[in-house]
Design goal:
Pfam family, one: TPP_enzyme_N
Radius of gyration: 25 Å
CATH topology of the largest domain: Rossmann fold
GO molecular function, one term: 3D-(3,5/4)-trihydroxycyclohexane-1,2-dione hydrolase activity
Largest sheet: 6 strands, parallel
CATH superfamily of the largest domain: Thiamin diphosphate (ThDP)-binding fold, Pyr/PP domains
Structural class: alpha/beta
CATH class of the largest domain: Alpha Beta
Helix content: 25-40%
InterPro entries: DHS-like_NAD/FAD-binding_dom (IPR029035), Myo_inos_IolD (IPR030817), THDP-binding (IPR029061), Thiamin_PyroP_enz_cen_dom (IPR012000), Thiamin_PyroP_enz_TPP-bd_dom (IPR012001), TPP-bd_CS (IPR000399), TPP_enz (IPR045229), TPP_enzyme_TPP-bd (IPR011766)
Number of strands: 23
Family: Belongs to the TPP enzyme family.
Low-confidence stretches: none
CATH architecture of the largest domain: 3-Layer(aba) Sandwich
Protein name: 3D-(3,5/4)-trihydroxycyclohexane-1,2-dione acylhydrolase (Decyclizing)
Shape: globular
Strand order of the largest sheet: 5-4-6-7-9-8
C-alpha cells in the first residue's frame, strides 16, 4: 500500500480538496473555500496547510469569527446545500465565537465544516493561553460547546483518527436528511503531528444528491387522503428548494388548482404572481393564505417542519383538518400527528401528480382562493406605497427596495420586524430571490449573510435589509465585502432600538422598557444618534443618509451603479407595521401582574391558547 506522510492539518485539507459534487452533470469542488481567522491554536497547523493550496482552495480572511461563519452558511443556503465552505478559528474565544453560527446552521439544516483550534492533546504545557480548565473533567474544552449545535462532532487527538472521522463528516454534510454543521475540534499540537496516510484515502470522491423514493403504502395512503379532501391547502417549505422540486410542485398545483402558501424558507418556490401562489403562511403570513388554512380540510406540507411561525403556534389551522407531511426526513414527517409521506420531493410529487388522475378540489374552493389572492395583492400594493412622510414605515421601505430589485436580484434579512414585513410584502419571481434566516432568527446574520449570498450569486445584486439593532451587533463584514470585492447593498432602517420587540412588549401588556433607546437607562442626554453612513464609510463602503422614500429610491439607483458595497440609512417609524394578514403567536403572558394591561393581555392570551390544536 502506497502512503504519503502528512500532518493532520495537511491531511484534512487534502481530503477536503478531493471532495467533488455533481451538479447537473458538472463536477465542482464540494468546498468552495475556507474562512479563517488565525491564532495560536491554528496558525501553525491549518494555517501552514492552507498556505500551500491557496490557488486551488481559497482562504478568506474575515473580521469576526461569527460573521465569517454566517457568510459560509448563507453561501450554502443560496446554492441549495450543494456546495459549502469550512471555517477555522483559534482555540478559545475565536472558536467559541462560531458557536452561535453553528446553531444557526443546525436549526436551518445547512452544511458548514467547523475546524476550531483546541488545547494541547498532550497537556504538557497546560494550562495554556485561553484554555478553559474544567475542575471535574479534564477532557472538556471550550469546544465542547459545539456538541449540542453540531450534527456531527469529533475531537481529533491522533492524526490516524481522520481515516474514520472524515468520511463520517462528509456523509453528514452531504446527506439530505442529516445535513447540518460538522465540528472537528483540532488540538493545536495534533494539527502538526505527521502520519503515513494511505494514498487512496485522498482519491477523488464525487458526491451526488441522494434521492429517496416514497414507500408505496405511505404513497397510497397519501393519495387516498388527498382524493377525500375538498378544500386542500399546500404549504411549501425550504425542502422544495433543496430538492430542486420547483417544476414538480408547479406541475402538481397547476394541474389540480391547489392553493399554495409559502413558509419563510419556502418563499420563491413559485413566482409571486403564479395563479396558485396565495402568499405566505403563518404568524407573518398573508391574510389570503391564513384564511384558507382556517377553513381547509387538508394541509399538504411539503418540505417543512411546520414551526410555530408557519402554523400560527398550532392555533391558525382548522382544528378538523387532516395533515399530510411530505418530507425527506421522517423526523419531520411524523410531527404534529401528520400522515407521513417520507421521500424526496422531486421524486414523490410526480407520483402524487399521476396518481390523482381526474380528481379536483371543490370549484367553490378554487374560486375562493382566487378571490382571496386578488384581495391580498391589492393589500400589498397599498402597504408598499409611499405615503410621502419623513418617517416611513418598514413596509414602505420594503416596497422601494423591491421596486429597485431586478428579476434575478436577492434580498437578505434575518431578525426583528423586517422578516415579517418581507414575508408578507416582498415579491420575487426568482426562486433564490428571497433569502431569510428565520430558523434561528439570528441578529447580526444580515450583513455577513449578504456577503456569503453575493459570493454564491455574484451576478445578482444582493440587497441586505437590516435594522439598526442588528447592524450594531455585527457589521464588520462590510469591510470584508469591500476587501474581497463582493459588493452588497445594505439598507439600514433606524428606528432607534428594537422596535419589533417593543411592539411585542406592548401587545403583552408591558410598558415601553429597555427596547427603544428612549426607554433605556442612559446618561441625561440620552443615547447617541448613530451615524451609520459615516460608520460604513469608515469601513470602506460608500454610504449616504436619506430622509424619505423618494430619496431612498434615488439612492438605490446610485447604489446599483456603485462598484463597491453601498450602505443607505434612513429613519423609520418604530410603532407601525403591516396589520393586515398574520396570525397569533404563542408568547406567554404573566398570570399575575400589577398592571391591568398585562391582566387584559393574559385574558387575550388564554382565549388564543384555547384554539391551539393539541393533536397536531
Amino acid at each position: 500500500m502506497n502512503t504519503v506522510r502528512l500532518t493532520m492539518a495537511q491531511a484534512v485539507i487534502r481530503y477536503m480538496m478531493a471532495q467533488k459534487v455533481d451538479i447537473g452533470g458538472e463536477l465542482k469542488p464540494l468546498f468552495a473555500g475556507v474562512w479563517a481567522i488565525f491564532g495560536h491554536g491554528n496558525v501553525a497547523g491549518l494555517g501552514e496547510a492552507l498556505y500551500h493550496v491557496q490557488e486551488e482552495l481559497p482562504t478568506y480572511r474575515a473580521h469576526n469569527e461569527q460573521g465569517m461563519a454566517h457568510a459560509a452558511i448563507a453561501y450554502a443556503k443560496t446554492l441549495n446545500r450543494r456546495q459549502m465552505m469550512a471555517c477555522t478559528a483559534s482555540a478559545g474565544p475565536g472558536s467559541t465565537n462560531m458557536v452561535t453560527a453553528a446553531a444557526v446552521a443546525h436549526v436551518n439544516r445547512l452544511p458548514v465544516l467547523f475546524l476550531p483550534g483546541d488545547t494541547f492533546a498532550t497537556r504538557l504545557p497546560d494550562p495554556v493561553l485561553q484554555q478553559v480548565e474544567n475542575f471535574h473533567d479534564h477532557t472538556l474544552t471550550s469546544n465542547d460547546c459545539f456538541k449540542p449545535v453540531s450534527r456531527f462532532f469529533d475531537r481529533i487527538t491522533r492524526p490516524e483518527q481522520l481515516l474514520t472521522s472524515l468520511p463520517q463528516a462528509m456523509r453528514v454534510l452531504t446527506d439530505p436528511v442529516e445535513c447540518g454543521p460538522v465540528t472537528l475540534a483540532m488540538p493545536q499540537d495534533v494539527q502538526t503531528m505527521a502520519y503515513d496516510f494511505p494514498e487512496h484515502f485522498f482519491d477523488e470522491k464525487v458526491h451526488r444528491l441522494r434521492r429517496q423514493s416514497p414507500d408505496q403504502q405511505e404513497l397510497s395512503a397519501a393519495i387516498e387522503l388527498i382524493r377525500q379532501s375538498k378544500k386542500p391547502l399546500v404549504i411549501a417549505g425550504g425542502g422544495v428548494h433543496y430538492s430542486g422540486a420547483l417544476s414538480e410542485l408547479d406541475a402538481l398545483v397547476s394541474t389540480y388548482h391547489l392553493p399554495v402558501g409559502e413558509t419563510q424558507a419556502g418563499k420563491g418556490t413559485l413566482p409571486w404572481d403564479h395563479e396558485q401562489n396565495m402568499g405566505t403562511v403563518g404568524v407573518t403570513g398573508a391574510a389570503s393564505t391564513n384564511a384558507l388554512a382556517a377553513e381547509a380540510d387538508l394541509i399538504i406540507a411539503v418540505g417543512t417542519r411546520l414551526g410555530d411561525f408557519a402554523s400560527g403556534s398550532r392555533a391558525m389551522i382548522n382544528p378538523d383538518a387532516r395533515l399530510l407531511c411530505l418530507n425527506v426526513a421522517s423526523f419531520d414527517a411524523v410531527k404534529h400527528k401528520g400522515q407521513p409521506l417520507v421521500g424526496d420531493a422531486k421524486l414523490t410529487l410526480p407520483e402524487v401528480h399521476s396518481a390523482l388522475q381526474d380528481w379536483q378540489p371543490d370549484g367553490s374552493w378554487i374560486e375562493k382562493a382566487a378571490q382571496l389572492r386578488a384581495d391580498w395583492n391589492k393589500t400589498v400594493d397599498i402597504a408598499t406605497t409611499d405615503r410621502g412622510t419623513n418617517l416611513p414605515t418598514d413596509a414602505e421601505v420594503v416596497g422601494a427596495v423591491n421596486r429597485a430589485a431586478g428579476e434575478r436580484d436577492i434580498v437578505v434579512c434575518a431578525a426583528g420586524g423586517l422578516p415579517g414585513e418581507l414575508q408578507k410584502l416582498w415579491r420575487t419571481r426568482f426562486d433564490k430571490g428571497y433569502h431569510m434566516e428565520y430558523g434561528y432568527s439570528c441578529m447580526g446574520y444580515e450583513l455577513a449573510g449578504g456577503l456569503g449570498t453575493k459570493m454564491a450569486k455574484p451576478d445578482s445584486e444582493v440587497f441586505v435589509m437590516v435594522g439598526d439593532g442588528s447592524y450594531l451587533m455585527l457589521n464588520s463584514e462590510i469591510a470584508t465585502s469591500v476587501m474581497l470585492g463582493y459588493k452588497i447593498i445594505a439598507v439600514v432602517l433606524d428606528n432607534r432600538g428594537y422596535g419589533c420587540i417593543h411592539r411585542l412588549q406592548q401587545f403583552c401588556g408591558g410598558p415601553g422598557f429597555n427596547n427603544l433607546l428612549d426607554d433605556c437607562l442612559t446618561v441625561e442626554g440620552g443615547a447617541p444618534k448613530t451615524d451609520f453612513a459615516a460608520h460604513a464609510t469608515a469601513l470602506g463602503a460608500r454610504a449616504e443618509k436619506v430622509n424619505n422614500i423618494q430619496e431612498l429610491e434615488a439612492a438605490l439607483e446610485r447604489a446599483k451603479a456603485s462598484s463597491v458595497s453601498y450602505v443607505i440609512t434612513l429613519d423609520t417609524d418604530p410603532l407601525l407595521d403591516t396589520q393586515e394578514g398574520g396570525s397569533w403567536w404563542d408568547v406567554a403572558v404573566p398570570e399575575v401582574s400589577e398592571r391591568s394591561e398585562v391582566e387584559e393581555a393574559r385574558k387575550r392570551y388564554e382565549s388564543y391558547k384555547a384554539r391551539q390544536r393539541q393533536n397536531m
